[in-house]
Amino acid sequence: MVTKVLLATPSHEVRDHLGHVFAESDGFELAAAVSDGAGVLTALDRQPDIGIVVADEAADDGHGHAVARTVGLTSPLTGIVMVADAHSPAEMSQAMALAMEVGARSVIARNAGLEEVLTRLEAVASWSATARASIAAERNGGRSGQVVAVAGAKGGVGTSVLALLLARAGRARDTILVDLDLGAGDLTAYTGVRTRRSVVDLAAVEGEVTGRMLRETTYEVPGGVRLLPAPSEGSAARR
Predict the structure, then answer these.
(1) CB of 107 within 8 A of CB of 82?
(2) CA distances to 66, 127, 150, 195 from 99, in Å
(3) Percentage of the chain surpassing pLDDT 90?
(4) pTM
């Protein structure tokens, strides 16, 4: 499989050098070459299958690390490799530390040879492919979900009714309606259910919530959804 690479550098020398590397490789394809952060984001938007971004420290008027950080935030499954002006092991070590801080997974020197560049790119490409495959498998296996938040500026504007209608509209899949109005939650009144537990009971086990805990804390309501209610008394949320 060929991995698409996006190169961000203002240097013609770096473009020519890495361009020759990609031309000698059957596993990588130079999808685009840009010089700044805006160009990187545009290219990633147009070609979401780009697997690696190679960001020169000198990109975007010397703000290459900021470019890398932005890529990590907007496209976390894309591997990032920094191009550093390093000529000694000590300089390379320092460049690696700076790169790791912004989310890069490897560093190559400007004068790195063909074998070194390909070795580092192959390792990053393998990581990116594995991460994307794992996420795709979770989605195909039904293990992922979607969160829709409904918020109102004040009480009485129909927020609870809208949330209930949206939950019922999504009942083709497992849907849980969560009432996070801890002071004055009213979804139990709208759904007509009597509850003993609420979202507050899960606060003590955040990060460790299991399917069984959700089943024991949620209630089936008309319309094919389950409700995780707010506490029946607002004061319970403060205990």
Answers:
(1) yes
(2) 10, 16, 39, 51
(3) 42
(4) 0.60
